[in-house]
Design goal:
This protein is 46% helix and 14% strand. With 316 residues, it is an alpha/beta fold. It starts with a helix and ends with a helix.
């Protein structure tokens, strides 16, 4: 909890305290009050700026001068590029070959050096980025497998939710590498003993579900083509160490169900959200979140989606 408090202090005045908004349509579908934590309205379009700022702002003078290397499916890279430019830190960001073009272009526009991988999968691309960091003697900034990332990305979001919606007892969170979900689960389970946390994943890359089944973190998975790139790949060891005793269920969502949820948010809330964030909405619409009996917060993690991807979703 001390690290989450440190992160909140560091981020105060530097990121948005995003709103929580009631969703009557999802409440009707769930049979319980549903509220949306709109991290899609965050600076750079996702929650990732929280962890990026917290870690980058604490680099030593020597590390800042050498610059950093990282790997991203898009949102982490955009956040790192934004913060690195503000702090004057050179940033090299490796992205999968099939990264959403809008995210790629946004990272480039922010002044970072972008290296597009020969691999489509996140895990293979991350290995290349880590090797380059080691070769060049620069720090490697993980997108999720770091306690500071969990504290800033998930912990600060959870603290805001608990303060702004103290009646909430069920939390639906997207799960990729575990940086957001792990931080949220740690905080809410610490302060709310009767809370429930449901992890929402793409059924084609279910790292958390597989890790719970095997009793150990599945840190690498075969590349999987999806519009929800932030959910593709393995889970971090630190995130899983937190989630394994704090997760109450996993909802596995299909690509078609994700598309339905993106369209639902446009139609009912007039919000454009990205496919990776739509899994929490889909978990409610499909009933895969299970029976909801208490006020529920669905975390909407981002809005960064390119026009070609959106056209595919709308045409489906």
């Amino acid at each position: 909890m001390d690290l989450i408090l440190d992160a909140r202090r560091a981020l105060e005045g530097r990121v948005r305290r995003t709103p929580i908004e009631a969703s009557p349509a999802l409440s009707d579908a769930a049979g319980a009050p549903v509220l949306l934590k709109l991290e899609s309205l965050q600076l750079t379009g996702s929650f990732k700026i929280r962890g990026a700022y917290f870690v980058l702002s604490r680099l030593s003078a020597d590390e800042r001068e050498r610059g950093i290397v990282t790997c991203s499916a898009g949102n982490h890279g955009k956040a790192v590029a934004y913060v690195a430019r503000a702090l004057g830190i050179p940033a090299e960001i490796h992205v999968p070959r099939d990264v959403d073009q809008a995210k790629h272009d946004a990272i480039v526009a922010l002044g970072a050096r972008v290296v597009r991988s020969e691999f489509e999968g996140y895990d293979d691309t991350e290995q290349v980025a880590q090797a380059e960091a080691e070769r060049s003697g620069r720090p490697f900034l993980t997108a999720f497998d770091d306690g500071r990332i969990l504290a800033a990305n998930g912990g600060t979001v959870a603290a805001e939710i608990v303060e702004d919606c103290p009646e909430a007892r069920t939390f639906l969170v997207p799960v990729g590498g575990g940086g957001l979900s792990g931080g949220i689960a740690f905080h809410v389970k610490t302060v709310l003993a009767d809370s429930r946390v449901i992890g929402c994943q793409h059924e084609g890359s279910p790292a958390l579900a597989l890790s719970l089944e095997r009793g150990e973190p599945v840190v690498r998975l075969p590349a999987f083509t999806t519009t929800a790139g932030g959910l593709e790949g393995g889970i971090g060891r630190i995130g899983f160490s937190v989630l394994r005793s704090r997760i109450d269920g996993v909802a596995l969502i299909s690509e078609a169900e994700i598309f339905d949820a993106v369209r639902f948010m446009l139609e009912r809330h007039q919000y454009l959200i990205e496919p990776s964030s739509a899994v929490t909405v889909a978990a409610i619409l499909t009933g895969k979140a299970g029976r909801l009996t208490s006020p529920t917060v669905a975390v909407i993690s981002g809005r960064n989606v390119g026009l070609p991807t959106l056209r595919r979703i709308l045409a489906a």
